[in-house]
Specification:
mainly beta
């Protein structure tokens, strides 16, 4: 299974990708199981999260990170600081 990818792109790259026109999702501090039916790319505006893939190592990310979650990923989201993110699903 492909890994969770965390990047720190510049604002120009984000604009070219159209990130700021993507929908916004917000969530309070919490912990929950999640699985991905399709690939998700998200850009965190605020917050701090640790995602632990099933049978994998925890991945930490936060504000200003662009994160790609591969299709088929099963994981646990542990939101340490309330999250606000732009997101987009891709097949």
């Amino acid at each position: 299974m492909p890994a969770i990818k965390v990047e720190r792109p510049d604002k120009e790259t984000l604009k070219k990708m159209g990130v700021f026109s993507w929908p916004v999702w917000e969530k309070e501090v919490s912990r929950f199981d999640w699985s991905y039916d399709s690939t998700e790319i998200c850009y965190l505006l605020k917050g701090r999260v640790v995602v632990t893939p099933e049978n994998g190592e925890p991945v930490s990310f936060g504000a200003d990170d662009l994160v790609t979650f591969p299709k088929g990923l099963k994981c646990v989201w542990d939101i340490k600081e309330a999250v606000k993110k732009h997101y987009q699903f891709r097949e």
